[in-house]
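Progress note, sequence design subtask.
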């Protein structure tokens, strides 16, 4: 019964609905009229700031300045590590090259079958890299240098071992896939 009345009401007013959008600034004019009727002064219009471009330029300058400081901080950490232990620089260079080669091999083996294991490995490598950066910071801050240098080398070896293990697993996956393919052909 109630629904019928609503339907009748809509039927009676069909074609008379206001579907036009109000013109630009309608809300502001409406509020001014409303406030004037209530005895309130009109709402002041927003002032455009002619210095908007200066705010943008200052923001960009701040961002670039912080970026520059961060890059200098990063370089100074490496320099400080080399000062503490010059041998670590050569060791780091060697291990970093080995790891980079293994990562290239890993990424070349990326396929739908191995995508999950490759992605997980990259996450683990990222965590190990973050741990290594923490060890560098500990070394600079005056921790037990022999112990920390040993941990840094172990970190590199762990990354290399991880990459070698994953590449071996990928090779096994490829062999299984190949043997399954050969069995289906026979």
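Output:
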């Amino acid at each position: 019964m109630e629904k019928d009345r609503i339907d009748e009401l809509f039927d009676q007013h069909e074609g008379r609905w206001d579907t036009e959008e109000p013109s630009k600034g309608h809300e502001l004019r409406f509020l001014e009229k409303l406030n004037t009727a209530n005895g309130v002064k009109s709402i002041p219009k927003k002032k455009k700031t002619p210095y908007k471009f200066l705010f943008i330029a200052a923001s960009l300058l701040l961002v670039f300045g912080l970026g520059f400081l961060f890059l200098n901080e990063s370089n100074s950490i490496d320099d400080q590590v080399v000062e503490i232990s010059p041998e670590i620089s050569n060791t780091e260079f060697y291990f970093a090259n080995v790891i980079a080669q293994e990562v290239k091999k890993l990424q070349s083996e990326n396929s739908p079958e191995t995508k999950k294991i490759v992605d997980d490995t990259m996450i683990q490598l990222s965590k190990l890299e973050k741990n290594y950066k923490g060890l560098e910071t500990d070394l600079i801050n005056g921790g037990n240098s022999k112990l920390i240098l040993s941990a840094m080398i172990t970190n590199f070896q762990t990354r290399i071992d991880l990459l070698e293990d994953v590449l071996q697993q990928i090779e096994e996956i490829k062999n299984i896939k190949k043997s399954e393919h050969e069995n289906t052909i026979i």
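The longest helix spans residues 145-185. Work on this subtask will continue into the next period as scheduled.
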